[in-house]
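Quick one: structure tokens for this chain, please?
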Amino acid sequence: MLIAGDIGGTKTNLGIYSRKRGARKPIVEKTFPSRHYESLEAIVEEFLESESVAVDYAAFGIAGPVIGSQVKTTNLPWMVSEENIIKKLKVKRARLINDLEAVAYSVLLLQEDDLITLNKGEAVEAGTVGVIAPGTGLGEAFLTCEKSCYSAHASEGGHADFAPTSEIEINLLKYMSKKYDHVSYERVCSGMAIPDIYQFLRDAGGYGEEPGWLAEELSRVEDATPVIVREALIEEESCKLCAAAIDIFVSVLGAEAGNLALKVMATGGLYVGGGIPPRIITFLEKPLFLRAFKNKGRYSDLMERIPIHVITNPKAALMGAAFYGLEAGQ
């Protein structure tokens, strides 16, 4: 029996798996609010006690760089190690991988109804596959094929320097530079970034006045991102500021997805995961995303041929961690 988990800054998804049922069919699964717990082990122990189940192995996809079988989580105050998990949970083996590495492994299991295609392209057999995922932060990873077998590789490319591609993005960079010592792609292309983009546009002017009712609602909520996304998706455009903020988010995401595709030569395709893309499909299907993705000068023709898919299965990272625990991480 395997316990697998997708450990993010906002929530932790856990599931129990068996080799017979496979990574797509957990025996039981449950979601926990990550910030309500002092450690990963505390969440796992509560889960196992509530389900009255014993496990033999553990595999967790976790947000942060895994170095030497341990990781300091990026958006949580946790230090997690395979050694401590084995000791606390009394399992035979524990494996930690980056959360985007887990999403990358899920690509090997995804089915047609788990995806929305933005660009059909022409996938090259055994070509490298790129994965980018804006959620609480911005994750990146890729898959390479050797002897008909794909392996996933982690990356922290989301923390690379943000490179603006338009005048408004240049002004956004200047605005963000006053707030943060380092402006990475994650700072302008993640759930945590959307309120900053909104405030930049509000302060810059030219996108209409902020409605009083919206200002009041934003002042009351702990996380403004869902509110901004909600208002952006209303067809009547009750708030042009919200729609403009998501447009910038989508343009930056398209450009960085294209950067990743170029850097790893993702001729096998580019997959967009994370919690935000499935919620803003109507924005991603506009010309803006693909235009930013393909805008690579002399390599625009190459970009045109790269398939692009949005992962709509919310448990993709959990599925990938389970697959790694059952198959790839032996």
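Residues 2-97+315-328 form a domain with the Nucleotidyltransferase; domain 5 fold (CATH 3.30.420.40).
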